[in-house]
Amino acid sequence: MTGSWIAVASAEHVRRGRAGGFMQVCHGKAAPLRRIRPGDRVIYYSPTITFGGKDKCQSFTAFGFVKPEGPYQFDMGGGFVPFRRDVTWLESTETPIRALLDRLDFTAGQRNWGYQFRYGLFPISDHDGDLIAGAMGARVSAI
């Protein structure tokens, strides 16, 4: 059984991960990445365009499937050696969350819908994963 996850990062960081075929969460911590299983769906949500910026994005920015290899460390220089997982990223369109808020299980009826994103990584229902995939135009059958 595969799961579906929301990961949170700025759009600029997500684009870097897409280009390199990997994901990082929670400032490079390993423990959250160990919760994800091979074949699980990962959907990135980007609250901002730049890390630490005030430039709102509030969009789903990437959709992919976790590869079989477990978390590994990568030296980014300057003493920063975060953990990563490899991901097969699908072609998809960055999609604003606002139009989906009333239809997603994890946001419907929630006045403070953004609260869960503070965790950096959290599981979502298959319904939500399917809904987001459709909105993003992710060709899930291509995998």
Order of helices and strands: EHEHEEEEEEH
Largest sheet composition: 8 strands, mixed
Query: How many separate helices?
Result: 3
Head-to-tail CA distance between termini: 16 Å
Strand content: 25-35%
- Apparent shape: globular
Radius of gyration over alpha carbons?
Answer: 14 Å
CATH topology: ph1033 like fold
Please write the CATH class name. Alpha Beta
What percent of residues adopt helix (DSSP H or I)? 10-25%
Low-confidence stretches: none
In the CATH hierarchy, the architecture is Roll
Look at the structure and give the mean pLDDT: 91
Number of domains: 1
Which structural class matches the secondary elements?
alpha+beta
Could you give me the name of the CATH homologous superfamily? ph1033 like domains
Quantity of strands, as a count: 8
Protein name: UPF0310 protein I2H36_03550
Family: Belongs to the UPF0310 family.
InterPro entries: EVE_domain, PUA-like_sf, UPF0310
Pfam families: EVE
Main attributes?
PUA-like_sf; ph1033 like fold; 143 residues; single chain; 3 helices; UPF0310; globular; alpha+beta; EVE_domain; UPF0310 protein I2H36_03550
Describe the structure.
The structure is a single chain. The chain is α+β, with helices and mostly antiparallel strands. The chain has a single domain, classed as ph1033 like domains (ph1033 like fold). The chain is 17% helix and 29% strand. It contains three helices and eight strands; from the N terminus they run βαβαββββββα. It has helices at residues 11-20, 31-34, 126-136; strands at residues 4-8, 22-23, 41-48, 56-66, 72-73, 83-89, 95-96, 121-124. Strands 1, 2, 3, 4, 5, 6, 7 and 8 form an eight-stranded mixed sheet that branches. A hairpin with a 7-residue loop joins β3 (41-48) and β4. It is globular and about 40 Å long.
